[in-house]
Amino acid sequence: MDMNDCKTVLSTRIGIVGSGHLGVALAQGLIAAGLPRANLLLSNRHSSAARGRLKKAGLEDRYADNRRVVDESQLILLTVRPQDYRALSGLQLKSGTVLVSFIAGLPVERIKSLFQPPPQIVRVMVSAPDTIAGACAIGARYGADSALVDGLLRRLGIELINLPSEAEFDAFTVYGPCLPIVLTYCESLAVKVSQEAIARGATACNLPPWGKVIAWANAVRPRGLDDRARRDYLHSATTPGGVTEALLDAVGEGLTLSDCFRAGIARSQRLAG
Ligand SMILES: NC(=O)c1ccc[n+]([C@@H]2O[C@H](COP(=O)([O-])OP(=O)(O)OC[C@H]3O[C@@H](n4cnc5c(N)ncnc54)[C@H](OP(=O)(O)O)[C@@H]3O)[C@@H](O)[C@H]2O)c1
């Protein structure tokens, strides 16, 4: 991929379906990277929370319903919760549309089955909104070859970790994007964490050598938070019913760390069902 692909992203019309924590962070990251506001639309179900979030982010004027997002965008980012993904099934995509699903747990084939004819789909798992805001996120991608998507991820400053296959996404989610959050939560509960055990657990799940990701998690995790700031951080990084929530619940119940990671992986696998 060359710099032209990065430039192309900034002249692409991008639609974000779901304007919660992640959708808004991606929108803000893209605008900060130089995407003209006029090229961006975001949808939601018009809940007061979603409207409030768009207002707070100064993105109210970029709201559109799903139909308009789909009609006017060349690249569509899906950022709804896994339990809501079926609501997208009635949408008719234009030919040539590229979909990027950021939804935890859901395999590419599951998303593909919603649309006729099946569009080009890329699945991305990315770290929490604060890392996107800081242009220090990590992620993994799987699916269609798309220079446009690679340009998008690069523009957002997301460092990609190569995984052997889509099967490793569940383990990647807990040992990668969730790790700064788990470390922060463990610290607040004075739970001791062995970095070696984390590296061994990742290896046992067929992930590549994990030292770099552990170092990343230690570097990006917030420190010195007071109770309120920690609550806000954990809230924005935790999708209700999602993988991080399962992981943190297990930590709170006092399970061993390896059992906590197992609980997170199991939740990710259940989301696919
Ligand atoms: N938060 C993270 O750190 C993180 C990290 C990696 C991946 N993810 C993934 O990103 C996705 C979103 O997570 P989140 O934490 O941002 O969730 P969230 O804050 O609950 O946001 C979900 C958004 O989706 C909207 N939505 C739901 N159904 C919709 C529909 N049919 N059409 C249009 N919009 C719809 C909601 O709008 P209403 O409020 O109006 O219903 C809300 O704006 C999840 O799949 C999660 O696995 C999140």
Secondary structure blueprint with pairings:
Blueprint: H1 3-10, E1 14-17, H2 21-32, E2 40-43, H3 48-56, H4 66-72, E3 75-78, E4 98-101, H5 108-112, E5 120-126, H6 129-133, E6 138-143, H7 147-155, E7 159-160, H8 169-175, H9 179-188, H10 195-204, H11 211-220, H12 227-236, H13 243-252, H14 257-271
Parallel strand pairs: 1-2, 1-3, 3-4, 4-5, 6-7
Antiparallel strand pairs: 5-6
Helix pairs in contact: 1-7, 8-14, 9-13, 13-14
Write out key terms for the chains shown.
11% strand, 273 residues, alpha/beta, 14 helices, 2 domains, binds NADP nicotinamide-adenine-dinucleotide phosphate, Rossmann fold
Structure commentary:
The structure is a single chain. With 273 residues, the chain is α/β, with parallel strands linked by helices. It has two domains: 3-160, NAD(P)-binding Rossmann-like Domain (Rossmann fold), CATH 3.40.50.720; 167-271, no CATH class. The chain is 47% helix and 11% strand. It contains 14 helices and seven strands. It has helices at 3-10, 21-32, 48-56, 66-72, 108-112, 129-133, 147-155, 169-175, 179-188, 195-204, 211-220, 227-236, 243-252, 257-271; strands at residues 14-17, 40-43, 75-78, 98-101, 120-126, 138-143, 159-160. A seven-stranded mixed sheet has the order 2-1-3-4-5-6-7, sandwiched between helices. Strand 1, helix 2 and strand 2 form a beta-alpha-beta unit. Helix 1 (3-10) crosses helix 7 (147-155) and helix 13 (243-252) packs antiparallel against helix 14 (257-271). It is globular, with a radius of gyration of 18 Å. The model has no long low-confidence stretch (mean pLDDT 94). The structure holds NADP nicotinamide-adenine-dinucleotide phosphate. NADP nicotinamide-adenine-dinucleotide phosphate (NAP) is lined by residues 17-23, 43-47, 49-50, 66, 79-82, 84, 87, 102-104, 126, 128-129, 177, 237, 239, 242. It comes from Pseudomonas canadensis. Belongs to the pyrroline-5-carboxylate reductase family. Residues 13-105 form the Pyrroline-5-carboxylate reductase catalytic N-terminal domain.
